[in-house]
């Protein structure tokens, strides 16, 4: 069964009848547990009273829920979807046992239902960050809604205005016309540690102000198609309706916005993901000030490093973001960054993996100058880059599916002028067949070999010389369809 990342949108098509199944509820109380040291011998009452007693105190979720629960709101949305024209049988609710049922089923006319609109309803959660009515939630909760209603814990309801939506980070900012509202303080996700207790408040399946708890499972998680959010992973129970609700630490500070689950069944399976609140706060500020979100851009495609690639580039540890392509006339190209460079840090902040680079760059205002630490030809160096404005993002994925008939094991030919124009490169050799080390590493027929260890390849003889000059490991830059990726090769 395929595992899916699911955005917990409550949007669903309205239906003629709604049936609710039975629910079983179990109440669990969290209190204080006391442990006394075990003793194998009898002690006097005086000695026993003098002996220290150990007390294990569980997290005080109750106080946090009581204090900050009123700042968590229930969001219901209404929208419309267009329906196409379709044929409909005139049988309607006709009894199948009716003697004319089979006649009409076979020979009755089809009634043509014209195009129209159907009302949709959805639900989610949010939380108040300003006493004058500013609310944060997920973009997918309110996207395409024609009406958004916010309900407070005191049963008051308000029609909310959508201030702005940022789909790349899945953040939306709402405002309701109210004053002196309860709020929740915002924390610092960078201070959050793996294993730390956290709790979520929201409206799973419409059950308002429900509290669930768990721990932080991991930080800076990268999810498919979510390149600008370093998610906080938890094992807090999150279900449809929790979307947009807060993830709080034991200080009662919001450290994230509950957004997605990873599931094979479509329901909660212990893997929940929250958007760090610092990412959401940056988006909120830009949406409220400018009405849109701008992001920084380097103009590179990057991929992750494994140990084999690190060895090929003479890097001891497999950390950093490997540049597989540099956009022509982009900020990185103007600064001298080349394919094969490994970005180790940005403004003295370490880049541990390729997934960490996009959100770091996106957070930098366009036009600002940054210092990049890169690894090139066996040593590190610093480059200065003026960050551009992001229009569209590209991140290369290392799919590793895939004759100099010697060390590499490929049969190749030079590219024709038309092929060079197609891939926008004057270098490159087309792979006609792949065996040995190349096939084992995933190079396949139709790939174009562009470089060996960062050195451009334009002829078969040049490829042989480049391979003869490297040691046991080589990093081969190839183009596969529209993506350029480095593939590590064990040459032996």
UniProtKB/TrEMBL annotation:
First-listed, main subcellular location of the protein, grouped into a coarse class: periplasm
Q: Which residues are in the PDZ domain?
A: 287-351, 404-482
Q: List, alphabetically, the SMART domains matched.
A: PDZ
Q: Which Gene3D superfamilies match?
A: 2.30.42.10, 2.30.42.60, 2.40.10.120
- One cellular component term from this protein's GO annotations in UniProt: periplasmic space
Q: Which reaction does it catalyse?
A: Acts on substrates that are at least partially unfolded. The cleavage site P1 residue is normally between a pair of hydrophobic residues, such as Val-|-Val
Q: Where in the cell is it found?
A: Periplasm
| Endpoints of the signal sequence | 1-26
Q: What is this protein called?
A: Probable periplasmic serine endoprotease DegP-like
One GO MF term on file is:
serine-type endopeptidase activity
């Amino acid at each position: 069964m395929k595992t899916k990342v699911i955005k917990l949108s409550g949007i669903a098509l309205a239906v003629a009848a709604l049936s609710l199944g039975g629910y079983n509820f179990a109440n669990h109380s969290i209190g204080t547990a006391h442990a006394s040291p075990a003793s194998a011998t009898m002690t006097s009452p005086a000695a026993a009273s003098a002996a220290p007693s150990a007390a294990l105190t569980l997290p005080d979720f109750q106080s946090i829920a009581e204090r900050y629960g009123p700042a968590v709101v229930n969001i219901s949305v209404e929208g419309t979807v267009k329906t196409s024209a379709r044929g409909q049988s005139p049988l309607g609710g006709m009894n199948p046992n009716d003697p004319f049922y089979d006649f009409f089923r076979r020979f009755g006319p089809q009634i043509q239902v014209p195009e129209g609109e159907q009302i949709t309803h959805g639900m989610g959660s949010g939380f108040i960050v300003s006493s004058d009515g500013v609310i944060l939630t997920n973009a997918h909760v309110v996207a395409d809604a024609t009406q958004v209603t916010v309900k407070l814990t005191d049963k008051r309801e308000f029609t909310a205005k959508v201030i702005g939506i940022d789909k790349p980070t899945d953040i939306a900012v709402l405002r309701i016309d109210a004053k002196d509202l309860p709020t929740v303080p915002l924390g610092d996700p960078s201070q959050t540690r793996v294993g730390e207790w956290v709790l979520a408040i929201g409206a799973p399946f419409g059950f308002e102000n429900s509290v669930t708890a768990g721990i932080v499972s991991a930080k800076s998680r990268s999810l498919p198609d979510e390149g600008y959010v370093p998610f906080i992973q938890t094992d807090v129970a999150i279900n449809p309706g929790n979307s947009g609700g807060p993830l709080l630490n034991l200080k009662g500070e919001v450290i994230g916005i509950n957004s997605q689950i990873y599931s094979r069944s479509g329901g909660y399976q212990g893997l929940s993901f929250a958007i760090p609140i610092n990412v959401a706060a940056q988006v909120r500020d830009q949406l409220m000030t400018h009405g849109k979100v701008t992001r920084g851009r380097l103009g590179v495609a990057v991929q992750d490093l494994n140990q084999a690639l690190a060895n090929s580039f003479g890097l001891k540890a497999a950390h950093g973001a490997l540049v597989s392509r540099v956009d022509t006339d982009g900020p990185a190209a103007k600064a001298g960054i080349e394919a094969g460079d490994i970005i180790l840090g940005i403004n003295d902040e370490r880049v541990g993996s390729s997934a960490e680079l996009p959100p770091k760059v996106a957070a930098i205002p366009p036009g600002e100058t940054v210092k990049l630490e890169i690894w090139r030809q066996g040593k590190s160096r610093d480059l200065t880059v003026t960050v551009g404005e992001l229009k569209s993002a590209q991140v290369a994925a290392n799919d590793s599916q895939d004759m100099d008939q010697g060390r590499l094991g490929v049969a190749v030919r030079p590219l024709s002028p038309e092929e060079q124009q197609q891939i926008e490169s004057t270098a490159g050799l087309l792979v006609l067949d792949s065996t040995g080390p190349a096939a084992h590493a995933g190079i396949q027929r139709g790939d174009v070999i562009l470089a060996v260890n960062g050195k451009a390849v334009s002829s078969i003889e040049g490829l042989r010389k480049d391979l003869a000059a490297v040691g046991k490991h080589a990093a081969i830059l190839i183009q596969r369809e529209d993506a350029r990726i480095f593939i590590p090769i064990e040459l032996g």
